[in-house]
């Protein structure tokens, strides 16, 4: 009986320790929280021409299934009720996942910003914004949304900040030099304490090289205000965004073909290309599934161990009592 109790106690103790480490792993990869804004720059009524134009534009924004580079920009209607919209997905997101993200974001904004002429929502995988003003090719670094990892950086902070800024500046130049379909750069590097750093920067590709560079510079300037000393952060503006972490959060990014030279931007969809789609964020999702699945299986095992221990502890005295009762009957019979 005592041996069984010791074994059960040890198993439960080890289970608690393992569960603690599993929770620590999850804590190192915090969930991304979206942000949205219903900008106070004018309202429309439910039966207005602007609302009809907005609904039409948002319902058709991602209808061009040939677009596989994650950037949608289109407009609909005539002034003063003309609507402009931009949708941008992270460069590694698959085309179908990109359209799904933008579709969900569209429904979200319609529900939460039912009368505002201008609104924007940032998700981990996509950004959608619309306005009654022309937003194509115009750099906008306000409003700013920031989120940081809860864990602090270890080691020399000055050295870390210097290395991070050098890395970000290099990626800024690389992204700004991108074409009209994609302005993005990502890197996997080794930081202080030999820890791996994953970084991604991105602009809406309708920006000029100078505007993309300036937008990212402005966004980088938010780090001391929100995220100084943290091992990871994400900062969004309407025209650009970037993120860095000590864990991978993006997958492979496919190359895109150069755009056709006989198209314009205004009221038509961007030019189609024939490149293969990016592999997207399958790695991130599979990692999440593996971690969650492992924890669920682990919890089930812990519960089974506890139930087994309780059963054995209850059953053992009962077996002894039954044995004594049988022996008593045998003695009486003799």
UniProtKB/TrEMBL annotation:
Keywords from the UniProt entry: Membrane, Repeat, Signal, Transmembrane, Transmembrane helix
InterPro entries hit by this protein: GNK2, GNK2_sf
Signal peptide: 1-27
Record bears the keyword Iron: no
A Pfam family this chain is assigned to: Stress-antifung
Organism, as annotated: Quercus lobata
Chain ranges of the Gnk2-homologous domain: 32-135, 141-249
Bilayer-spanning residue ranges: 289-314
Protein name per the record: Gnk2-homologous domain-containing protein
């Amino acid at each position: 009986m005592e041996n069984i109790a010791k074994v059960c106690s040890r198993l439960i103790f080890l289970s608690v320790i393992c569960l603690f480490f599993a929770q620590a792993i999850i804590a190192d990869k915090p969930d991304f929280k979206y942000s949205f804004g219903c900008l106070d720059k004018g309202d429309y009524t439910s039966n207005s021409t602007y609302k009809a134009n907005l609904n039409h534009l948002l319902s058709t924004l991602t209808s061009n299934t040939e677009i596989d580079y994650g950037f949608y920009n289109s407009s609909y209607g005539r002034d003063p009720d003309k609507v402009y919209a931009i949708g941008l997905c992270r460069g590694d997101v698959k085309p179908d996942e990109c359209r799904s993200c933008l579709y969900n974001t569209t429904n979200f904004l319609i529900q939460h910003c039912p009368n505002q002429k201008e609104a924007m929502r940032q998700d981990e995988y996509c950004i959608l914004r619309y306005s009654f003003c022309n937003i194509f090719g115009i750099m906008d670094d306000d409003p700013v949304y920031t989120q940081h990892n809860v864990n602090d950086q270890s080691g020399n902070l000055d050295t870390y900040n210097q290395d991070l800024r050098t890395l970000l500046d290099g990626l800024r130049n690389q992204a700004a030099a991108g074409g009209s379909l994609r302005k993005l750069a990502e890197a996997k590097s080794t930081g202080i304490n030999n820890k791996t750093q994953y970084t991604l920067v991105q602009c809406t590709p309708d920006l000029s090289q100078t505007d993309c560079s300036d937008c990212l510079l402005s966004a980088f300037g938010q780090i001391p205000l929100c995220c100084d000393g943290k091992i990871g952060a994400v900062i969004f503006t309407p025209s650009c965004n970037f993120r860095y972490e000590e864990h991978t959060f993006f997958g492979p990014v496919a190359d895109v073909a150069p755009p056709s030279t006989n198209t314009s931007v205004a009221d038509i969809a961007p030019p189609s290309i024939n490149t293969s789609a990016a592999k997207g964020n399958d790695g991130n999702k599979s990692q999440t599934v593996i971690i969650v699945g492992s924890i669920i299986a682990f919890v089930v095992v812990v519960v089974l161990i506890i139930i087994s221990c309780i059963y054995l502890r209850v059953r053992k005295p009962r077996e002894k009592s039954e044995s004594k009762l049988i022996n008593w009957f045998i003695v009486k019979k003799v």
